[in-house]
Design a protein that fits this description.
323 residues, alpha/beta, seven-stranded parallel beta sheet
């Protein structure tokens, strides 16, 4: 299968590509302009186009022979979108809509749109689990733009085009190609090892978490499923048991490092609070994540102690546009 992955050298994309290339039946095309100064993967069966999605006028040469598109490219995360709001609108919304229309025009049947559980925002009742039918209440520009693209896909259905929307739980886990230390589990683990202290904002708020290995597995399961069976479906990606408050993550880290100190700070400017159900993806795609948060914590602790990231506070490990 010939697959186009936008943003393929990012945190999730680079991990996913390695999984694909363990199977020689895949040919990968990557469009990634390396906006975070990340590096392309030097592996066989990859063709890389270093170009901004916004700059592509003629998609034909990129889409020739492509059977599936995995659309990861975006300014990912609330801080980078808030800081670069116009750029976020251009990339996360306008360029996404253009890619969707080009996929239709080029008769590419499989299209995976990568969305986020952040779309649930501030739940009316965070004591209950929310599923894919629940109200979307985005509280950040990042989530608002994801919701708008989701609406566009679902409201503009076309014959012979079979998109699937995946709302990822907050990602975590070790990636030696393109690590991120601006994600909660990864960041807390880094600080617990290197500073022996955590500063936690809004320790009471709930979030679901999913390892990048399992996120990659979910994508591969979607690709392996008959397109018509899951066309225009929305799936939360994660496990219902893997919802945590930030305080619960601190408690897991405390077990690994009993000397760990913590300072809790009342959080009012980020009201996201959501517990998510992942029963649909388990029942429909038989998707059961392999990793739990504690597994990710332990692998990152080992990597930091082995000095794999000698400068773990460098900006290259954040989704921050480096000028």
């Amino acid at each position: 299968m010939k697959i186009l992955i936008t943003g393929g050298f990012g945190y999730i994309g680079s991990f996913l590509i390695e999984k694909f290339l363990q199977n020689k039946n895949y040919e990968i095309i990557v469009i990634d302009n390396l906006i975070y100064k990340n590096q392309p993967l030097n592996l066989p069966n990859i063709k890389h186009f270093n170009i901004d999605l916004r700059m592509i006028n003629d998609y034909d040469k990129y889409l020739d022979g492509v059977e599936a598109i995995i659309h990861l490219a975006a300014l990912v995360g609330d801080p980078v979108c808030a800081k670069n709001s116009e750029l976020a609108k251009e990339i996360n919304f306008a360029a996404s809509i253009k890619l969707i229309e080009e996929a239709k025009k080029n008769k590419i049947p499989k299209f995976i749109f990568v969305s986020t559980c952040s779309n649930y925002g501030k739940m009316a009742d965070s004591s209950k689990y929310i599923d894919e039918t629940g109200e979307l209440r985005p509280v950040s520009l990042y989530a608002q733009l994801k919701v708008e693209v989701e609406k566009y896909i679902l409201q503009n259905q076309t014959v012979d085009f079979y998109p699937v929307i995946l709302r990822f739980a907050t990602a975590y886990g070790l990636n030696k190609h393109r690590m991120r230390f601006d994600l909660t589990v990864n960041e807390f683990t880094r600080d617990s090892v290197l500073k022996n202290e955590l500063v936690i904002y809004g320790e009471q708020f709930w979030r679901p978490y999913c390892h990048i290995f399992d996120i990659s597995e979910a994508i591969m399961k979607v690709l392996a499923t008959e397109s018509k069976k899951i066309a225009y479906e929305v799936f939360n990606v994660g496990a219902t048991s893997e919802n945590y408050t930030k305080q619960m993550i601190y408690e897991l880290l405390k077990k690994e490092n009993p000397e760990l100190k913590v300072k809790f700070v009342k959080q009012i400017d980020d009201p996201r609070d959501y517990k998510v159900s992942f029963e649909k993806i388990k029942n429909v795609l038989n998707f059961i994540p392999k990793y739990k948060v504690i597994d990710g914590i332990r692998e990152i602790i080992a990597a930091l102690k082995a000095n794999i990231f000698p400068d773990a506070y460098n900006k290259i490990y954040r989704n921050e546009i480096i000028v």
